[in-house]
Amino acid sequence: MIISLLISSTFIASFYMKAKSFPSTKCEIYSYKIIKNRQLINISSYFLLITELLIAICFAFNLFGSIKIVFCGLLLIFFCLILLNKRKKEKDIKASSCSCFGDMEFMNKYPLFRNCILLGLLLIQLFLPTYQLDFKLEVTLFLLIVIVIIFYDLILQIKKLKANYI
Known about the structure:
Distance between the termini: 44 Å
Order of helices and strands: HHHHHHH
Shape: globular
């Protein structure tokens, strides 16, 4: 259950930060130089948001059993591969981080390491027995995660405002 909550929290945070600054999300997708067509970048951006939200929901509510674990693992592997490709092309220090989590800078550092940890957690989750929580508890936990992420973002915005006025 804890692993599912960690994975769900990670994808909710990523979804929230990308949705909050959608133009930056499109720029980030463009920066990987895989998709160059503007319309495809828009479609890819929406697809990414929907995918991350669905993964978060699937892990929060324990939907689709092993299928969600395999799909999430494949997505994380894909993210690692495109990040490695970006690093190889740019040969730049900035390529070692990402902006998947917007203002949550601590989550943007070391994305390969973060994704490998998540892949390890998924592997552990694959072999753990399944569980079923009460639906009300699942909803409560999900909403709590969302509230914590929004509260964290609010604190970040307040710090930025203070820094601009001092």
